[in-house]
Amino acid sequence: MNLLLFGKPGAGKGTQAPKLAEALKLPTLATGDVLRQAVREGTPLGKKAKEYMDRGDLVPDDVILGIVGEALASPDYQRGVILDGVVRTVPQAEGLKQVLNGLNRKLDAVLSFEIDNDEIVQRLGGRTVCEKCQTPYTGRNAGEKCEKCGGTLVRRKDDEPDAIRNRLRVYEQQTAPVFDWYSRNGTRMATVQAVGTFDEVTKRALKALGR
Ligand code: AMP
Predict the structure, then answer these.
(1) What are the tens digits of pLDDT across the range 118-154?
(2) Rounded percentage of the chain residues whose pLDDT exceeds 90
(3) Which residues line ligand 1 (CB under 6 A)?
(4) In the annotation, is 88 catalytic?
(5) In 50-70, which positions are buried (b, 16+ CB within 10 angstroms) versus exposed (e)?
(6) What is the radius of gyration, based on Cα positions, of the chain?
(7) Which of 37, 55, 88, 155 to mutate to test the pocket of ligand 1 (most atoms within 8 A of CB)?
(8) How far is CA 8 from the centre of its chain?
(9) Looking at the DSSP assignment, which residues form a beta bridge with residue 82?
């Protein structure tokens, strides 16, 4: 199965992805994680992406499609994949379709996480992430230790108020049209109300996917 997780920044895609991966026995690919790692390692990709990311802007489509094309061709993703935040513009949706076509595959479903902007601002304003394994936390302070790997929790630069506002603006302008594009293209669309406890959202998500 090739599944795309879609929704506003802070909707909980990255929080749910590992749980869905476990339930569906699929690996995940998150462009945000690939990019943050590249920034940390100071690679040419990281140097190119950093400014866009810090401002809360989208990294150019050709850079994203390069990452996705390379990753999906690797043996790790042959059996299927959960794509987390990978498609944020219509050209990226078109590019992903080409990449999957070239591998004789197609997107089986889009799972859209539905949530209000007010909830997002509150959530991201209180979020920390593990600097090592990227696990996101709410209600935990920077400097505390990650429960999963012992790494240090940090604030993301793009979770500061100005960047959050910009990310939501960018979502409305460039990412929201992706939902309509997939709807028109006959892709199976599933939606999940992304509020409530972690387990409630997981249950709803699996149910929306018919599991
Ligand atoms: P995320 O961790 O998914 O919130 O992504 C963090 C940042 O990485 C975004 O705000 C963008 O700057 C960049 N990014 C991640 N995925 C994409 C994508 N598919 N297209 C463009 N930029 C992306």
Answers:
(1) 999 989 989 999 999 999 998 899 999 999 999 999 9
(2) 95
(3) 9, 31-32, 35, 52-53, 56-59, 64, 85-88, 92, 158, 167
(4) yes
(5) beebeebbbbebebbbebbbe
(6) 16
(7) 88
(8) 9
(9) 3, 28
